[in-house]
Amino acid sequence: MNMLIKNLALLLLAAVALLGFAGTAQAQRPAITGFSPASGTVGSTVTINGTNFNRDVNGAVWAGAIPYRVRFVIGGGVATVTPTFVSATQLRAVVPAGAQTAPISLVQGFTLMSTSATSFTVIYRPTISSFTPATGPVGTTINIAGSSFNRDVNGAVWAGAIPWRVRFATTTGTTDVVPTYVSASSVQAVVPNGAITGTLRLVQGATVMSTSTTSFTVTVVQTRLRITNNTQYDMVSLTLNGVQQFASGTGVLIGGTNDFPVAPGNYTLVAGIGFIAANGARDVWFTFTRSVTIANGATVQQTFAPITLGSLLTAGSASRRWNGSYFNANGGLGVASYIFQASGAFTMQDNGVNIGNGTAVLVSWPNRSNTVTFRTSPNGPLATLDISLGKFFQQVGPPSWPIIEFIRQ
Question: How far apart are CA 353 and CA 327, in angstroms?
């Protein structure tokens, strides 16, 4: 009997000691006494104050990796994050995605060690998740996807005018654009003038609420004048409002197309067609003048068609006279004349008297040639025009008449 009493006493002492050890271990577990700030957004850092953060669930001082986690309530459950150890009385933890307003807890494994007395308030600010398109010029409408676009910097649902802006990087810093509100998960913003490639940010006042993970690439759309030269000669001069666009010795070759970046505006275009001399000088034979309006971002096409025989014979005018002298059968001096129209039609005169009319017919005009061959009637005699000298030779009248040299007047 005495032995039984003695064994029971020993068991009782062991139980008391075990309970005392468990109580001591629990008392030395990490415990939360408070945190700051009292509210924050997903991704913000919470500083947690307390005791025994240098110990584990058993009250033992740990070394190496921190053994416990900070637990947040999220929609449909909980999420634990590994805190950053600062000291035995302070930790830091980042608010995880999906966090909800609720107390913060410390857990190790399945053991709940401590829970805050108050709730951490999660503020849901507008957040960018993605955007399309990824590239575009100034004026492009960007569709931005995300969450909480119906809330402001404080997480409150706003009404009336949208309180925040979409910020773009620009050549001079940044520009904030008022978005077009579509829904809580979608807004639109137009790429502003001066924007350059960079991330998109949502800002309200001095607070940057969200930054995109990728950059929007601003493409440069040039305002261009496009010249196509389909004439018989090279384009050797091009001035816009008096400013030469060709470097010395360059131009637009026959059949070629060149683009010229220009500022938007109204221009007087003067194109010179001819040859480039060996020393790079411009030998202009034909000149074309046009008025051109070029809008911002536009490409304006200017095509120069083959020079017509009528245009050649009139030197680009409405009409032009060509005179040739001859001696008649009596030895008198006569004047034969062609009065050409831009269409190629002509009237022929002998000493000022109309003696016939017709239309000139092109026979041969090789590219870059100094001479052009034509007829003044389908089966009439050939006329060979020397372009640079402005004259052509032709036998007109009866066979006994001489070949007359006609000179452009």
Answer: 17
Would you state the pLDDT for residue 331?
A: 76
Question: Token pair for residue 400?
Answer: 């006994």
Q: For residue 16, what is the enclosing H or E element?
A: helix 2-27
3-state SS class at 11: helix
**Helix spans in 202-334 (H):** 309-314
Specify the 3-state DSSP secondary structure of 388.
coil
For the stretch 376-394, pLDDT in tens is: 988 888 999 999 899 999 8
Question: What is the C-alpha to C-alpha distance for residues 213 and 200, in angstroms, rounded to an integer?
Answer: 9
C-alpha 171: how far from chain center:
14
Of 220, 227, 290, 217, give the one whose Cα is nearest residue 253. 227
Cβ-based neighbour number of residue 387 at 10 Å: 19
Which distant-in-sequence residues (6+ apart) come within 8 Å of 94 by Cβ?
43, 44, 45, 46, 81
The model's pLDDT over 68-122, given as tens digits with 9 standing for 90+, comes to 999 999 988 999 999 999 999 999 999 998 899 999 999 999 999 999 999 999 9
Buried b (16+ CB within 10 A) or exposed e, 201-237: bbbbeeeebbebeeebebeeeebbbebbbebbbbbbb
Nearest Cα neighbor of 69 from 44, 42, 96 is 96
Whether the model clears a pTM of 0.70, i.e. scores above it, the answer is no
How far, in Å, CA of 159 to CA of 155, rounded? 13
Helix (H/G/I), strand (E/B), else coil: 13: helix
Cis peptide before 37 (omega within 30 of 0): yes
Amino acid at 315: A
Task: Indicate the burial class of 395 (C-beta count within 10 angstroms; 0-12, 13-18, 19 or more).
Answer: middle
- Distance, CA of 146 to CA of 201 (rounded, Å): 12
Between strands 45-51 and 111-123, the pairing is unpaired
Residue carrying the six token digits 């509100």: 181
CB neighbour list of residue 93: distance below 8 Å, 6 or more residues apart? 45, 46, 48, 70, 81, 83, 84, 104
Answer yes or no: are the C-beta atoms of 349 and 337 closer than 8 Å: yes
